[in-house]
Amino acid sequence: MKSAFRESVNVALNNANLTGALGRFSEAYRIGRAKAYEGIDFEAVRAQIRDVKSAAACHLDELAETFKRNAEARGAKVFRSSDPLQVKEYILALAKEHGVKLVVKSKSMASEEIHLNAHLQAGGVEVEETDLGEWIIQLAHQTPSHMVMPAIHMTKEEVTEVFNNEVEPGQVPDIAKLVKFARGKLRAKFLNADMGITGANIAVAETGSLVIITNEGNARLVTTLPKIHVAIVGIEKLVEAFDDVQPILTALPRSATGQLLTSYVSIITGQVPNTDGSPKELHIILMDNKRSEMARDPKFKQALQCIRCASCLNVCPVFRLVGGHVFGKTYTGGIGTILTAWFDELKKAEDIQSLCIQCGNCKVVCPGMIDIPELILELRRRLAVEQGQGVVQKAIFAVVNNRRVFHAMLRTASITQKPFAKDGFIRHLPFFLSDLTEFRSLPAIAPVPFRDLFKEIQQPKGKEKAAFYSGCLIDFSYPEMGKAVVEVLNKAGIEVVFPDKQTCCGAPARYSGAYEVAAQNAQDNIEALLAEDVKYVVSACPTCTVALKQEFAATFESLGMTGRLEDAKKLAAKAMDFSTLVKQLVDEGRLSFKEGQDLGKVTYHDSCHLKRTLNASEAPRELLGKAGYEISEMSECDMCCGMGGSYSLKLPEISAPILARKLVNIKAADAPLAAMDCPGCVMQIRGGFDKDGAKIAVEHTARLLADRLQ
Amino acid sequence: METLFETFKARAEAVSAEVHRLATQREAFDFVINLLQEQGVEDVPGRGAIWADGTILKGFGKKYLANEAPCLSFEITRQAAADAKVGISQADWAVAATGTLVVDAAQVEQRLVSTLPSIHVALVGTSRLRADLPTVLKQLHPSQTGYISLITGPSRTADIERVLTIGVHGPERLIIVFVDELERGNA
């Protein structure tokens, strides 16, 4: 990671205005969005959008031609170009030809992508942004920090200062007055402009129509008052039929701003009369700029399903801390990382892709059904292939992958950590490692790992067998969680085996883009776990479970190792997370809880992989309830805790504030105990409370259930 | 129709539009005349009123209005629109699900009266109310017109500190008047 990038992240993190505004917005957004979708089947709508947009992405060239033909039949001029410079030159030449002095613009990301304003200004044309947020950042000489709300990072005081310095002194920080001032100033611009430039949210091939969605009403003025209208449209905005507009119109306002519909939607088809009665000159530029190339990439084609609602930004635990500017000049957040890598270059995404903590929030809300986290992993993989793994990282994976060396090292560490470890925690680390323990204590490495402890457990013989896949954290730091899992399964008459050759699940390697390493991990684990004749393979770590159930196969597929898929699927069919298996055993009557237990309040934290990939959020709650706990829900119970595996080691400065927010939410739930199903979350949150000093116990669900079962 | 109207009213009011329902065209005209008086409309820049042509003006309408509200202009020029405080027009359809008006706005007058003045009064036949947008867009299709406007509440922004502010570039008040007697759209 480059130090300039790290610096920009730190500047953002320390900008209280920014993190305050974004934090408050993300909380309100969650509620507003849910309300807007009441009575709408979001899954059905987004499946429609995916179908419409992916079909379009398969025929971009054909649709562009159809659009051109139909729009031109209605009097528009359509210019197709794959080159940003050509687009800029076309518009400037048009402006010169018509003696255009002033251009008014409504919001267009495509124009920002190609830095159109600078080009026109250099050519002697005045350009005025008219979307309020865009106007503010234009006056402030900044770039947008959010795709829908470009000036969300600025306070009213900052806006006032910009107006005072750049437009007219005497403004006061009163939002209604500032808006009125902008209305007055821009009204004159609208009336005097010779050319209006817009983007488009949708372009309909069948009818040659542009659909433009706004709230302020500026696009209606931009397309009505000047005699020339230029629309810059990325070809991914094309849809085939007019009916295809409908699902996008349903989702875009709801997902973007929690509105049922924006104030204005304009559907423009061909030439319409100007205010003097002459027919308006309408130029539509269909801009490719690497979109066709993207459509040909089997992995990244789906990114063209984006409708630019920015919901992936609004639900991202990292975005709400760092804002948009660290992402670059145009596209921000999760989808922005992907678009930047393509429209700009892969290298530009090198730093920003590392911001993704892989919590999966964005995937759940994306109206285009884009698997953003997966695409970011794919960027990581390609970057790793292109540039090679760092020397340090390579060395780490070499060790992790060599089971014997890794385990020997950890055992040595459990002895050598002694100067730092106390009561099971490491609270301070020296030198460059000090960042890691500044905001949360780390767990000490257990004196006896689970793999050794397991051999000492006396188990009754059972009719059924389950293999326990411990994962690294339970094996080396939290063996007591493993013990609890064995205890619970024994009570259901299941005998547990621990295949000794199991190794790291490969998530750290996969999430770093080192797919070959992850594939080796997958292969070793599949061999070890399929060697046993067991009914279930159970894990008490959701990230490991996702690896067993999905990612082993996905990694093989990515690398074209199709020969390995069959075994991966065999393992996947047996793999289960702890709570889902236990709930099943309870439902089958094989496990029952002690009667009459009143264990007090517990608040439950949903771990990212458990909730969003394994869809298990009810099972642990139900089990804790049956055990005798009263669940007291915390706010944002399913928001990431900031652990993200090695993320908290790579970006402790981001992990820390995410954790801080989680701790606040847990405390506000007013329970003495926080439960969760992931040893990684336990490590992060328990370590956080150790530093914080609050007397809240943090436990894995398995530990809470073990002695409550009969 | 009653349920549709109630839904429309609730949805439109939720986005700060004002919704009225009157029985006759005459009542609608009187409503507008009252509003113009209340707003102190007169024939000076910034205080004018303009009315874009529509089927509601066929018949006795125009004459009656010209008589009762002489400050009202039916000549929609760029300058008249820029100088007007109140713009009046007739919408073609209304959509209950979102509280939206749908207008064939290919004629520039339709756009001028609904963008530049700070108050937009939209009259619409109660019988032009439909449940949802797809139903309306089957009636009003891009093959028939170059500019379809969907209007849902007045102009709004939340670009400064996410604080909702009504009235940025477009009207700050949207007054919707359903007229039971009015059967046709604008064309």
Tell me what the structure shows.
The complex is a heterodimer of chains A (710) and B (187). Chain A is an alpha/beta fold and 710 residues long. In chain A, 50% of the residues lie in helices and 12% in strands. In chain A, the strands form five sheets. Chain A has a six-stranded parallel beta sheet, with helices on both faces. In chain A, helix 2 packs across helix 12, helix 3 (42-58) packs across helix 12 and helix 21 runs parallel beside helix 23 (479-491). The model of chain A has no long low-confidence stretch (mean pLDDT 93). Helix content of chain B is 30%, strand content 27%. Chain B has helices spanning 2-14, 25-38, 61-68, 78-83, 108-115, 133-139; strands at 18-22, 48-51, 72-73, 84-90, 93-95, 100-104, 119-125, 129-130, 147-151, 156-157, 165-166, 173-179. In chain B, the strands form three sheets. Chain B has a six-stranded parallel beta sheet, with helices on both faces. In chain B, strands 8-5-6-9 form a four-stranded mixed beta sheet. The mean pLDDT of chain B is 94. The chains are: A alpha/beta (710), B alpha/beta (187). Chains A and B meet through helix 2, helix 8, helix 10, helix 11 and helix 12 of A and helix 5, helix 6, strand 9 and strand 10 of B.
